[in-house]
Amino acid sequence: MTTFSKGLEGIVAAETAISYIDGTNGILEYVGIPIGELASKSTFEETVYLLWNQRLPNKGELAAFTSDLRARYSLPAGMLERIAGVPTDAEPMHVLRTMVSALSMYDPNPNENTVEAARDKSLNILAWTPSIVAAFDRGRRGLEPVTPDTSLGFSANFLYMLNDKKPTEAMVRAFDICMITHADHGLNNSTFTARVIISTLSDMYSAITGAIGSLRGPLHGGANEGVMKMLNEIDSVSDAEAYVMGKLERKERIMGFGHRVYKAKDPRATELMTLAKQLADDTGNADLYEKSHAIELIMEREVAAKGIYPNVDFYSATTYHCIGLKLDLFTPMFALSRIAGWSGHVIEQLADNRLFRPTVNYVGPHDAPYIPIDKR
Ligand code: ACO
Question: What gap in Å lies between CA 198 and CA 208, rounded to an integer?
Fold first, then answer.
């Protein structure tokens, strides 16, 4: 009972039937289905159903789930005004975190924690968050929000609300693959955060708000923005070698590489690499892909022996850029997708809850004298 593991490395802290990771062999499965299968054959809506029900839906179930989600696209009355009141130079992740927290005030029963209520709230949050991000981004550009289009799927509707223009099928599919590949990933930091919060029987909004706060860190989901900044700092493919070697010599981290669990290439990076190459070619961004690939090869030569390979964030940066997203929207995109996983884990935690309350090794003094303030 006194085992101490810094960063909880190697500690089993929960049981889940949602996703499985084999970090040695680079395997990720959602409910047993390899991520590559889902990325090539599924849709985001179907994947969410899978994560929340631990089985694939039949045609009728998927149609019902999709139409229920679409019927919830519009934000509660008052939320658009709230978003319009946000400073236009605020960071989108701070806005998203704050607005998800604010959603609780528009829910007549925010604290309801039955599994059924949690599923209902999850569907609302999943449906509303794209509207929050799109409305904020348009507002800061001096543009009016676009009313969601319930004839469109999750990905198409988000891109439509962002640009006031129907996206091409290729862009919708690319975005959907990003949403599928980011939807869940074991007991990562933000998912753990969500489970820890709900384990006090707090509420779904608090759990998702906390998880968004965790995700934005540069060691977690914030790394995709770090990757793009790095690619922008490298002028051309031929500069990649000096750039990466300089960073490694200074013991700096290369964003988008390394993982607490994977000691092989993250299978999501493999999926996104193919997607990034295709999109980069199609959108005149081939140089971005070439720079990324050059970095991957240098890293393979230099640090693969330490088990450091590209993670999900590495090629998602090029992918999001090619989809036309601004740099500071990359991490919010991760959040839009991961809401599926966070919610699934909150529901799983509620169904068999035990309060998270680890212990700590006290390393301070004992029996210390209380020195009166005028004697200190
Ligand atoms: N670049 C260079 N070296 C690295 C990197 C990297 N990205 N990641 C780890 N290392 C090195 C460390 O310097 C350390 O070397 P040392 O043993 O010689 O000191 C060794 O690999 C082990 O590193 P740790 O920090 O102990 O590994 P940990 O499991 O704590 O780190 C983490 C995992 C935080 C993801 C780390 O790899 C990192 O900082 N990566 C960059 C940020 C990133 O891409 N985060 C996204 C992760 S995926 C996600 O959350 C969605």
Answer: 9
Residues across the chain? 376
CA distance 166 to 157: 8
- Ligand 1 pocket test target in 308, 313, 333 with most atoms within 8 Å of CB: 308
pLDDT in tens, 173-187: 999 999 999 999 999
Which residue's alpha carbon is at the smallest distance from atom 47 of ligand 1?
220
- Written as one letter, the residue type at 142 is G
| Domain-located, residue 62 | yes
Whole-structure pTM value? 0.95
Domain membership of residue 281 as a residue range: 1-67+161-356
62-87 burial, b if ≥16 CB within 10 A, otherwise e? eeebbeebbebbebeeebbebbeebe
Does the residue 84 lie in any domain? no
Token pair listed for 203? 């509420």
Q: Into how many domains does the chain fold? A: 1
CA-nearest of 272, 294, 71 to 177 is 272
The catalytic residues are 220, 259, 313
Q: Work out the average pLDDT over 261-281.
A: 94
pLDDT tens-digit profile of 274-288? 999 999 999 999 999
Place of tokens 């929207």: 329
For residue 23, give the CATH number of its domain: 1.10.230.10
